[in-house]
Amino acid sequence: MSKPNSMLFKIVLGLFLFFGGTSSYAQAIFKGTIEDIETEKPIPYASVFLANTTFGTSSDEEGKFSLDIPDGNYEVIIRILGYEGLTFNLPASTVQPQGYRFKLISVDEDLDEMEVSDVRDPSWYRNLDDFKKFFLGTSENSRDTEILNELSMILNDQSIPGTLIASSRDILQIDNINLGYRVEYLLEHFRNDYRSGIVTYSGFPLFIPDSNLSKGKQRRVEKNRLEAYYGSMQHFLKAVYDGKTVAEGFEMRRLFREKDPDRPGKFIDRVDSILITSIAIRKNIGTRDYLEFSDHILVTYLNEKESFLYAQGLSRGPRNNQTSIMRMAVDSLEIFENGSLSDPFGLVVEGYIGWERVGDLLPIDYLPTTEFKRGVQ
User: Fold this and answer.
1) Model-level pTM?
2) Which of 48, 209, 269, 307 registers the highest number of CB atoms within 10 A of its CB?
3) Assign residue 229 a region: left if phi > 0, alpha if psi is -120 to 50, beta otherwise?
4) Nearest by Cα to 74 from 200, 185, 181, 205
């Protein structure tokens, strides 16, 4: 397994950071007022959104907002420049109909530091290329994805030898042309350890669908979304939750990783020939479900070939199936119907699914439509 294709996959998506199922019908109205904590004056134009979904809004001139949210459990983000942001968990079932008052703390901004300059050191641009490679990815969708405000990036390769740490002064504005979304991504963490080949990242994305697509472009976008969804982590975990991994085209086998006695620091992988038809989900009292499995599992998606770009990165030709290796980093993970997990660090993923990054990411409220099926041209 090639190390550059290994990553701690943050079900954030980075994956998918967010919790809970969604449905197509609004179950609650989340509303409130955003104010300055000292003056109690309203704060207009603050962003309010449910992370990793298409659900978001802004406060009006009186600091008020209202947002219909489906049944489920979400991370809510409230953010505006000049104030400390708020991030909190909100189950739709607990939303109070009378609304909420949110008081933000103002922060002093160094205007000179916040000013974006076109002048950058050559090493900054090299680091930017690396960041985009490992954050956006190298797939066809990723190559056509653009960070519109990349000059807001802070790229640090000096604090820790052999490590690139990235952050941003502002929410990243990402234009994903192929999937038809503008993504506003609040980057919480990015680290690329060049020596181990492990990349970790996390954040809070809001997906804004492009509403100005022609019918022809919309069909192409729907096809691209289907291709991004099928075989993805979101698809796999939804199939696990539904007990339909085989029907959805996934094969699973136990994989045993042992130290190579002849090569220190290397491993030998041995795959069990017996297929696993399901992964254990422990049903808790009530409606909460937990994913649990031991060792490593080899996950093969049979319905799509590998991307040529993926195989090219491994210096070989594409294979007929997409393979990934997964192991749990914790004892159990709460799993939800839409293909999300409770802990962004809960799974370690290598291989094809680990190769797919933000450029192939879809919101957790995305549902494949019956009109567009596999193989539609």
Assistant:
1) 0.84
2) 48
3) alpha
4) 205
306: DSSP letter: P
> Residue 216 has which token pair?
């022809």
Nearest to 53 by CA among 353, 341, 338, 356: 338
Among the listed residues 259, 322, 271, the one whose alpha carbon sits nearest the alpha carbon of residue 296? 271
Is 34 exposed, middle or buried, given 0-12, 13-18 or 19+ CB atoms closer than 10 A? buried
Q: How do 26-36 and 198-209 pair as beta strands?
A: unpaired
Token code pair at residue 346: 């809960």
Measured from the Cβ of residue 257, the count of other Cβ atoms closer than 10 Å reads: 14
Contact assessment for residue 155 and residue 122, using Cβ atoms and an 8 Å cutoff: no
Give the sign of the dihedral formed by CA 239, CA 245, CA 251, CA 255. Answer: positive
Which value, in Å, is the radius of gyration of the alpha carbons in the chain? 21
Which residues in the chain show pLDDT less than 70? 1-26, 109-118, 285-286, 370-377
Q: What is the pLDDT of residues 310-367, one digit of tens each?
A: 999 999 999 999 999 999 999 998 888 777 787 777 888 999 999 999 999 999 989 8
The pLDDT value given to residue 9: 34
Query: Burial level of 50, CB count in 10 A (0-12/13-18/19+)?
Result: buried
Q: How many CB atoms lie within 10 A of CB 92?
A: 22
Length of the chain: 377
Q: Quick check: 92 and 74 in contact, CB under 8 A?
A: yes
Helices (H) and strands (E) counted in the chain, each on its own, are 7, 25
